[in-house]
Write a structure and sequence with these properties.
The complex is a heterodimer of chains A (about 120) and B (about 110). Chain A has about 120 residues and is mostly beta strands. Helices cover about 0% and strands about 50% of the residues of chain A. Chain B is an all-beta fold and about 110 residues long. Chain B has strands at about 5, 10-15, 20-25, 30-35, 45-50, 55, 60-65, 70-75, 85-90, 95-100, 105-109. The chains are: A mainly beta (about 120), B mainly beta (about 110).
């Protein structure tokens, strides 16, 4: 089974802090994703990566950055945390398709519930 | 704009059948996914439809009509453990996933 592991289930930080969320997958997947999930809204894509050192902005990248130095690890960084970044953050991964695109299911970690005070 | 609509909440009785609908308007279509998410847990993959018709997987079935922009997830012989949110997501022309807000399914004894 694919295992996607997020470093923390719960995290409390203060406004202005730099926050790091870590995600590791063990199935050699090319694609990795960071989403946030808020009540009443669908999952919103923050950033994704299709290869080491490659990143693409999603729908809501403002206030976030990412790092992918190794294939199995994808980090989300909140440069200067703000209260409106309080949310559930989900990491996911999937296999790249032959065409460079993927219609394969994404596999998710258990999420990090982040509170910014 | 791109839009996925599904009911916010549904209630059903243990042992019964429930149908969760999803309608979509997206720029292009490369398939539709259903995921299950128990409270406080990760979404888990249930089904993928790219062609019209019904696909059955045990107690769960998923239906797609591309011409109508419509899908449903059918859950039979409901069990208490089926209480969860069910997320519909469409892969658009750029192979980006567009997510619905999810349907919270409550199962009563």
């Amino acid at each position: 089974d694919v295992k996607v592991t997020q470093s923390s289930r719960y995290l409390v930080k203060r406004t202005g802090e730099k926050v790091f969320l870590e995600c590791v997958q063990d199935m050699d997947h090319e694609n990795m994703f960071w989403y946030r999930q808020d009540p009443g809204l669908g999952l919103r894509l923050i950033y994704f990566s299709y290869d080491v050192k490659m990143k693409e902005k999603g729908d809501i990248p403002e206030g976030y950055s990412v790092s992918r130095e190794k294939k199995e690890r994808f980090s989300l960084i909140l440069e200067s945390a703000s209260t409106n970044q309080t949310s559930m953050y989900l990491c996911a991964s999937n296999i790249m398709g032959r065409s460079g695109y993927s219609n394969q299911p994404q596999h998710f970690g258990d999420g990090t519930r982040l509170s910014i005070l | 704009g791109q839009n996925i609509d599904q009911p916010t909440e549904m209630t059903a009785t243990e042992g019964a059948i429930v149908q969760i609908n999803c309608t979509y308007q997206t720029s292009g279509f490369n398939g539709l996914f259903w995921y299950q998410q128990h409270a406080g847990e990760a979404p888990t993959f249930l089904s993928y439809n790219v062609l019209d018709g019904l696909e059955e997987k045990g107690r769960f079935s998923s239906f797609l009509s591309r011409s109508k922009g419509y899908s449903y997830l059918l859950l039979k012989e409901l069990q208490m453990k089926d209480s969860a949110s069910y997320l519909c997501a469409v892969l658009d022309s750029n192979y980006q996933l567009i997510w619905g807000a999810g349907t919270k399914l409550i199962i009563k004894p």
